[in-house]
Protein backbone atom coordinates (compact mmCIF):
# COMPACT_ATOMS: atom_id res chain seq x y z
CA UNK A 1 0.00 0.00 0.00
CA UNK A 2 1.39 3.42 -0.84
CA UNK A 3 1.60 5.80 2.05
CA UNK A 4 1.37 9.35 0.79
CA UNK A 5 -0.56 12.10 2.50
CA UNK A 6 -2.86 14.36 0.56
CA UNK A 7 -1.07 17.65 1.27
CA UNK A 8 -4.22 19.72 1.51
CA UNK A 9 -5.60 17.55 4.34
CA UNK A 10 -2.81 18.40 6.75
CA UNK A 11 -1.88 21.53 8.64
CA UNK A 12 1.63 22.79 7.91
CA UNK A 13 2.30 24.01 11.48
CA UNK A 14 5.74 22.87 12.72
CA UNK A 15 4.14 20.56 15.32
CA UNK A 16 1.98 18.90 12.65
CA UNK A 17 4.98 18.54 10.35
CA UNK A 18 6.91 16.88 13.15
CA UNK A 19 3.99 14.52 13.87
CA UNK A 20 3.61 13.64 10.21
CA UNK A 21 7.33 13.04 9.75
CA UNK A 22 7.28 10.70 12.73
CA UNK A 23 4.24 8.82 11.42
CA UNK A 24 5.78 8.31 7.98
CA UNK A 25 8.98 6.92 9.45
CA UNK A 26 7.26 4.67 11.96
CA UNK A 27 7.39 1.02 10.80
CA UNK A 28 4.41 0.10 13.02
CA UNK A 29 2.22 2.79 11.50
CA UNK A 30 3.10 1.42 8.06
CA UNK A 31 2.50 -2.14 9.21
CA UNK A 32 -0.89 -1.20 10.61
CA UNK A 33 -1.95 0.51 7.41
CA UNK A 34 -0.85 -2.37 5.23
CA UNK A 35 -2.03 -5.26 7.45
CA UNK A 36 -5.12 -7.13 6.27
CA UNK A 37 -6.11 -7.46 9.93
CA UNK A 38 -7.19 -3.81 10.01
CA UNK A 39 -5.96 -3.18 13.51
CA UNK A 40 -7.55 -0.06 14.88
CA UNK A 41 -4.47 1.09 16.70
CA UNK A 42 -0.71 0.99 16.52
CA UNK A 43 -0.92 -0.29 20.12
CA UNK A 44 -2.12 -3.65 18.82
CA UNK A 45 1.51 -4.41 17.92
CA UNK A 46 2.58 -3.82 21.51
CA UNK A 47 0.25 -6.52 22.79
CA UNK A 48 1.21 -8.89 19.97
CA UNK A 49 4.89 -8.39 20.76
CA UNK A 50 4.50 -8.78 24.54
CA UNK A 51 2.41 -11.90 24.06
CA UNK A 52 4.92 -13.43 21.62
CA UNK A 53 7.90 -12.74 23.86
CA UNK A 54 6.28 -13.87 27.09
CA UNK A 55 5.10 -17.39 26.79
CA UNK A 56 1.99 -16.49 24.76
CA UNK A 57 0.08 -15.79 27.95
CA UNK A 58 -2.96 -14.70 25.95
CA UNK A 59 -2.93 -17.74 23.67
CA UNK A 60 -3.56 -20.46 26.21
CA UNK A 61 -6.35 -22.98 25.81
CA UNK A 62 -7.66 -22.21 29.29
CA UNK A 63 -7.89 -18.47 28.63
CA UNK A 64 -11.63 -17.90 28.27
CA UNK A 65 -12.27 -14.49 29.80
CA UNK A 66 -10.23 -11.40 28.98
CA UNK A 67 -10.90 -7.87 30.23
CA UNK A 68 -9.44 -4.96 28.29
CA UNK A 69 -9.45 -1.73 30.31
CA UNK A 70 -8.98 1.51 28.38
CA UNK A 71 -9.75 -0.37 25.20
CA UNK A 72 -10.65 2.31 22.64
CA UNK A 73 -10.26 2.39 19.71
CA UNK A 74 -9.95 -1.38 20.09
CA UNK A 75 -6.62 -2.73 18.82
CA UNK A 76 -5.94 -4.85 21.91
CA UNK A 77 -9.51 -6.15 21.96
CA UNK A 78 -9.14 -7.19 18.33
CA UNK A 79 -6.00 -9.17 19.19
CA UNK A 80 -7.68 -10.81 22.20
CA UNK A 81 -10.89 -11.55 20.29
CA UNK A 82 -8.98 -13.22 17.45
CA UNK A 83 -7.89 -15.81 19.96
CA UNK A 84 -11.12 -16.11 21.91
CA UNK A 85 -13.13 -16.30 18.71
CA UNK A 86 -10.91 -19.18 17.61
CA UNK A 87 -9.60 -17.50 14.49
CA UNK A 88 -6.07 -18.11 15.71
CA UNK A 89 -4.30 -21.46 15.87
CA UNK A 90 -6.55 -23.15 18.41
CA UNK A 91 -8.15 -26.56 18.43
CA UNK A 92 -11.92 -26.15 18.49
CA UNK A 93 -12.19 -28.65 21.31
CA UNK A 94 -10.27 -26.36 23.64
CA UNK A 95 -12.89 -23.62 23.40
CA UNK A 96 -15.99 -23.32 25.53
CA UNK A 97 -19.09 -25.29 24.48
CA UNK A 98 -20.43 -22.55 22.23
CA UNK A 99 -16.98 -22.18 20.69
CA UNK A 100 -16.16 -18.93 22.47
CA UNK A 101 -14.99 -17.25 25.57
CA UNK A 102 -15.53 -13.60 26.23
CA UNK A 103 -13.65 -10.33 25.84
CA UNK A 104 -15.00 -7.36 27.78
CA UNK A 105 -13.72 -3.99 26.60
CA UNK A 106 -14.12 -0.93 28.82
CA UNK A 107 -13.50 2.68 27.88
CA UNK A 108 -15.05 6.04 28.58
CA UNK A 109 -14.99 6.63 24.83
CA UNK A 110 -17.46 4.99 22.52
CA UNK A 111 -16.06 2.04 20.57
CA UNK A 112 -17.23 0.63 17.30
CA UNK A 113 -18.36 -3.00 17.76
CA UNK A 114 -15.89 -5.89 17.39
CA UNK A 115 -17.14 -9.44 16.86
CA UNK A 116 -16.83 -11.42 20.09
CA UNK A 117 -16.23 -8.33 22.25
CA UNK A 118 -18.69 -6.84 24.76
CA UNK A 119 -18.05 -3.15 25.08
CA UNK A 120 -18.88 -1.08 28.14
CA UNK A 121 -18.69 2.68 27.83
CA UNK A 122 -17.91 3.96 31.31
CA UNK A 123 -15.33 5.68 33.44
CA UNK A 124 -13.36 2.87 35.01
CA UNK A 125 -12.66 5.08 38.02
CA UNK A 126 -16.36 5.45 38.81
CA UNK A 127 -17.37 3.67 42.05
CA UNK A 128 -19.67 1.13 40.40
CA UNK A 129 -17.33 0.11 37.53
CA UNK A 130 -16.03 -3.00 39.29
CA UNK A 131 -19.49 -4.38 40.09
CA UNK A 132 -20.87 -3.66 36.61
CA UNK A 133 -17.94 -5.40 34.89
CA UNK A 134 -18.16 -8.25 37.43
CA UNK A 135 -21.86 -8.77 36.64
CA UNK A 136 -21.14 -8.96 32.93
CA UNK A 137 -18.36 -11.47 33.58
CA UNK A 138 -20.69 -13.66 35.61
CA UNK A 139 -23.33 -13.45 32.93
CA UNK A 140 -21.08 -14.08 29.94
CA UNK A 141 -18.15 -16.09 31.23
CA UNK A 142 -18.51 -17.95 34.52
CA UNK A 143 -20.43 -17.97 37.76
CA UNK A 144 -17.44 -16.91 39.77
CA UNK A 145 -17.06 -13.85 37.57
CA UNK A 146 -13.33 -14.42 37.15
CA UNK A 147 -11.08 -13.24 34.33
CA UNK A 148 -8.06 -15.20 33.13
CA UNK A 149 -6.29 -12.14 31.75
CA UNK A 150 -6.78 -8.46 32.64
CA UNK A 151 -5.20 -5.94 30.29
CA UNK A 152 -4.91 -2.24 31.03
CA UNK A 153 -3.54 0.21 28.48
CA UNK A 154 -5.35 3.05 30.27
CA UNK A 155 -3.69 6.41 30.43
CA UNK A 156 -5.14 9.63 31.83
CA UNK A 157 -4.87 12.74 29.68
CA UNK A 158 -1.73 14.66 30.65
CA UNK A 159 -2.30 18.07 32.19
CA UNK A 160 1.26 19.40 32.01
CA UNK A 161 1.34 19.52 35.81
CA UNK A 162 3.77 16.79 36.88
CA UNK A 163 2.22 16.28 40.35
CA UNK A 164 -1.30 15.95 38.95
CA UNK A 165 -0.14 13.66 36.14
CA UNK A 166 1.67 11.32 38.55
CA UNK A 167 -1.36 11.29 40.87
CA UNK A 168 -3.67 10.43 37.94
CA UNK A 169 -1.35 7.61 36.86
CA UNK A 170 -1.27 6.33 40.46
CA UNK A 171 -5.07 6.44 40.70
CA UNK A 172 -5.40 4.31 37.57
CA UNK A 173 -2.79 1.77 38.69
CA UNK A 174 -4.40 1.50 42.14
CA UNK A 175 -7.89 1.08 40.68
CA UNK A 176 -6.73 -1.60 38.23
CA UNK A 177 -4.98 -3.45 41.03
CA UNK A 178 -8.08 -3.33 43.27
CA UNK A 179 -10.13 -4.58 40.36
CA UNK A 180 -7.69 -7.43 39.66
CA UNK A 181 -7.80 -8.47 43.33
CA UNK A 182 -11.53 -9.10 43.00
CA UNK A 183 -11.79 -10.44 39.49
CA UNK A 184 -8.55 -12.16 38.45
CA UNK A 185 -8.47 -15.95 38.58
CA UNK A 186 -5.76 -17.32 40.83
CA UNK A 187 -2.90 -19.41 39.48
CA UNK A 188 -3.69 -22.04 42.07
CA UNK A 189 -7.29 -22.47 40.89
CA UNK A 190 -6.01 -23.14 37.36
CA UNK A 191 -3.21 -25.41 38.50
CA UNK A 192 -0.70 -23.43 36.50
CA UNK A 193 1.93 -21.26 38.14
CA UNK A 194 1.83 -18.74 35.31
CA UNK A 195 -1.97 -18.43 35.24
CA UNK A 196 -3.93 -15.35 36.28
CA UNK A 197 -2.23 -12.59 34.29
CA UNK A 198 -2.39 -8.81 34.65
CA UNK A 199 -0.75 -6.57 32.04
CA UNK A 200 -0.68 -3.00 33.31
CA UNK A 201 0.63 0.15 31.66
CA UNK A 202 2.51 2.56 33.86
CA UNK A 203 4.78 5.58 33.57
CA UNK A 204 8.26 5.84 35.02
CA UNK A 205 8.16 7.43 38.48
CA UNK A 206 9.55 6.40 41.89
CA UNK A 207 6.04 6.31 43.41
CA UNK A 208 4.92 3.82 40.82
CA UNK A 209 7.96 1.67 41.59
CA UNK A 210 6.85 1.68 45.24
CA UNK A 211 3.39 0.63 44.12
CA UNK A 212 4.93 -2.26 42.18
CA UNK A 213 6.99 -3.38 45.19
CA UNK A 214 4.18 -3.13 47.74
CA UNK A 215 1.10 -4.13 45.75
CA UNK A 216 2.12 -6.24 42.78
CA UNK A 217 5.23 -8.20 43.72
CA UNK A 218 3.85 -9.90 46.85
CA UNK A 219 0.73 -11.08 45.01
CA UNK A 220 2.13 -12.55 41.80
CA UNK A 221 4.67 -15.27 41.18
CA UNK A 222 6.49 -12.96 38.79
CA UNK A 223 6.31 -9.27 37.87
CA UNK A 224 8.27 -8.30 34.78
CA UNK A 225 9.00 -4.88 33.40
CA UNK A 226 8.27 -4.89 29.67
CA UNK A 227 9.03 -2.20 27.12
CA UNK A 228 8.08 -3.54 23.69
CA UNK A 229 10.03 -2.33 20.65
CA UNK A 230 6.76 -0.94 19.35
CA UNK A 231 6.51 1.42 22.36
CA UNK A 232 8.20 4.66 21.34
CA UNK A 233 11.59 4.98 23.00
CA UNK A 234 10.98 8.65 23.91
CA UNK A 235 7.84 7.67 25.84
CA UNK A 236 8.22 6.95 29.57
CA UNK A 237 5.50 4.31 29.33
CA UNK A 238 6.23 0.72 30.16
CA UNK A 239 4.16 -2.30 31.14
CA UNK A 240 4.20 -4.60 34.10
CA UNK A 241 3.45 -8.14 33.13
CA UNK A 242 2.28 -9.81 36.34
CA UNK A 243 1.89 -13.56 36.04
CA UNK A 244 0.57 -16.13 38.46
CA UNK A 245 -1.90 -14.30 40.69
CA UNK A 246 -1.64 -15.74 44.18
CA UNK A 247 -4.97 -14.43 45.43
CA UNK A 248 -5.86 -12.14 48.30
C1 LIG B 1 -3.67 4.27 24.78
S1 LIG B 1 -5.41 4.23 24.68
C2 LIG B 1 -5.73 2.51 24.54
C3 LIG B 1 -5.45 1.93 23.18
C4 LIG B 1 -5.95 0.50 23.06
N1 LIG B 1 -5.14 -0.42 23.84
C5 LIG B 1 -5.95 0.01 21.63
O1 LIG B 1 -5.16 -0.89 21.30
O2 LIG B 1 -6.75 0.52 20.85
C6 LIG B 1 -5.89 4.58 26.32
C7 LIG B 1 -7.40 4.57 26.54
O3 LIG B 1 -7.65 4.64 27.94
C8 LIG B 1 -8.91 5.28 28.11
N2 LIG B 1 -9.07 5.70 29.49
C9 LIG B 1 -8.26 6.51 30.21
N3 LIG B 1 -8.77 6.69 31.45
C10 LIG B 1 -9.92 5.97 31.51
C11 LIG B 1 -10.90 5.77 32.52
N4 LIG B 1 -10.79 6.34 33.73
N5 LIG B 1 -11.95 4.97 32.26
C12 LIG B 1 -12.08 4.39 31.04
N6 LIG B 1 -11.19 4.56 30.03
C13 LIG B 1 -10.12 5.33 30.26
C14 LIG B 1 -8.85 6.43 27.11
O4 LIG B 1 -10.16 6.88 26.80
C15 LIG B 1 -8.14 5.77 25.93
O5 LIG B 1 -9.05 5.32 24.97
Description:
The chain is α/β, with parallel strands linked by helices and 248 residues long. The chain has 2 domains: 1-34, no CATH class; 40-245, Vaccinia Virus protein VP39 (Rossmann fold, 3-Layer(aba) Sandwich), CATH 3.40.50. 36% of the residues lie in helices and 17% in strands. It contains 8 helices and 7 strands. It has helices at 14-25, 27-34, 44-53, 75-84, 129-140, 162-183, 187-190, 206-216, and strands at 65-69, 102-107, 117-121, 149-152, 197-203, 220-226, 237-245. A 7-stranded mixed sheet has the order 3-2-1-4-5-7-6, sandwiched between helices. Bound molecules: S-adenosylmethionine.
Strand line-up of the largest beta sheet? 3-2-1-4-5-7-6
Q: What is the overall shape?
A: globular
Per the CATH scheme, the topology name of the largest domain is Rossmann fold
Question: How many independent structural domains?
Answer: 2
Q: What is the class of the largest domain in the CATH system?
A: Alpha Beta
Classified in CATH, the superfamily of the largest domain is: Vaccinia Virus protein VP39
Helical percentage = 25-40%
The first-to-last residue Cα distance is: 50 Å
SSE string, helix = H, strand = E? HHHEHEEHEHHEHEE
Overall pLDDT level? 86
| CATH level-two architecture of the largest domain | 3-Layer(aba) Sandwich
Structural class: alpha/beta
> If helices are DSSP runs of H or I spanning 4 or more residues, what is the number of helices?
8
Largest sheet: 7 strands, mixed
Query: What is the alpha-carbon Rg in Å?
Result: 18 Å
Organism: Artomyces pyxidatus
Keywords: Methyltransferase, Transferase
Protein name: 23S ribosomal RNA methyltransferase
